[in-house]
Amino acid sequence: MRKPRYGLTRAQVDLCTRRRAAGDRAGACAAAGIALEADPAAVAARFGAGAGAALDDDLRHLVPDLLRWHVLRLYEHPARPVAAGAPIPLTVLGEHGLQLVPQTGGTRFALRYDRLDPDRLASGLHGLRELWDARHTAGLLARCGGYTRLPFFAPDGTRLEGEGPEAVTERVVADFRAGRGEQAWLEAGFDVDLNNSAPGWYQALENGEAPAAAQLAYVAWTIATRAGVEAVHVPAARYHRFWIDRLDPTGRVKPRLRVVDVAWDMGEPSVELPLTELYAPEDFWDLLLGRIAPGDLHPLVAAALFPARPASDPAGPPPMAPLAPVRVRCGPDWHEVAFRDGVLAGPHPPEELERELALLALGGPAPAGCAGAAIAWRGGPSRLPARLRELRAELFARAERGEADTVTALLDAGLDPHVRAGDGRSLLHVLPALVPDEAGPRLLHRLVAAGLDPTAPTKQGLTPLRHAQRAGAAPALVAALAVFAHGDGRAGRLP
After folding, report:
1. Secondary structure of the chain in the HEC alphabet?
2. pLDDT, tens only, 351-368
3. What is the predicted pLDDT for the residue at 385?
4. Which part of the chain has CATH 1.25.40.20?
5. What top-level class would CATH report for the domain 326-485?
């Protein structure tokens, strides 16, 4: 089961909240890894007072940590809200020119202002204010197909199914998950016309956005009426699109859904339905599949999806589990190894590990048991136990999503900082992704002081400095890495 990658910690959420409450917009954005480069005064001087006032209003209600929460999920699941395989245009946030620009591998961002390109509105984040505007977070419930509750859940977060208007969405989702795409669209209220459908129509039918399907007919009618046409078309798969007509808000006539080739001319005017109208936050799927609990959500998301959840129950991204001891087969016995004071240690005296390291340096075989686990953790040739592999994977995943607080907390708890990923990356290689910007240089000094080699490359020969330069890391981090790389701080190298 895929584990959610949060990219945000409760400490970050708390810090952003405090800074927003104090009116520190730039500080709140910085805590969420977003550089605020949009200045209402400058915009007013260039584009007029109305543009400056609109930008100021957007920034006043912007929740940067909420934006980060949702945007990182768009990177994780590129099929939403755009067609599968297409790049995510993470730019337009609102109607007034506020834009989000990805930086440093998609974990750090900048907020800028520019004139809107109308062609980008349909596929950007335009129309999804629920993802970042404090005034609109309640709209997340409708995005997930809910009216009075989240499908498959009661308002307090317990499981519930088959009651109220959400039951239709629940049946549609169940059909899609079971591979019954045609039945799902019929359940959603459509007349599915497959006469003369494009080849591969079944793939398009099963590629539906399940929570939106039950509400799509009304949304299609709204969009078509606004444009003065009687049909809409919707990207359905790489080579297909849905053509929806016979739109009647009274429900006397079922809307017709056809699957056509993207190049076909249907011979009648239509309007493209913005993909944002089909977007359901990934939180819905994580909740449905048990990947995440209601209390693990961003606090504003939890409040929107579960309004009856007790206010006394805290919500927010969960921390990594504590560093528990791990059982290792060591000769004929089973021993426990645990992280203590920056070392993965077992019940053996330190001299035994030093002896194994010396033998390995002289060309001896890779050690097993407790010594083998300690050496494998540092990138050596021994086999790393499964539980430690999981810990290493989660550590690097969270670090690469920007969780500086997580890395710091684990180091404080005694984690051995010399860990190396399978491709040879050390914690020095993930520093460019950490949020906020000042976290990278701070942890760099700590890691080098602990003995990490600032010049040690990955298996592809990429040093921490070169990686930071390639990733567009903050200038302060690049400068600090350059100082260490050209100094004499070489330590901690495995034999």
Report:
1. CCCCCCCCCHHHHHHHHHHHHCCCHHHHHHHCCEEECCCHHHHHHHHCHHHHHHHHHHHHHECHHHHHHHHHHHHHCCCCCCCCCCCCCCCECCCCCEEEEEEHHHCEEEEEECCCCHHHCCCCCCCCHHHCECCCHHHHHHHCCCCCCCCCECCCCCECCCCCCHHHHHHHHHHHHCCCHHHHHHHCCCEECCCCCCCCHHHHHCCCCHHHHCCHHHHHHHHHHHHCCCCEEEEEECCEEEEEECCCCCCCCCCEEEEEECCCCCCCCCEECCHHHHCCCHHHHHHHCCCCCHHHCCHHHHHHHCCCCCCCCCCCCCCCCCCCCEEEEECCEEEEEEEECCEEECCCCHHHHHHHHHHHHCCCCCCCHHHHHHHHHCCCCCCCCHHHHHHHHHHHHHHHCCEHHHHHHHHHCCCCCCCCCCCCCCHHHHHHHCECCCHHHHHHHHHHHCCCCCCCCCCCCCCHHHHHHHHCCCHHHHHHHHHHHCCCCCCCCCC
2. 887 887 788 777 888 888
3. 92
4. 326-485
5. mainly alpha
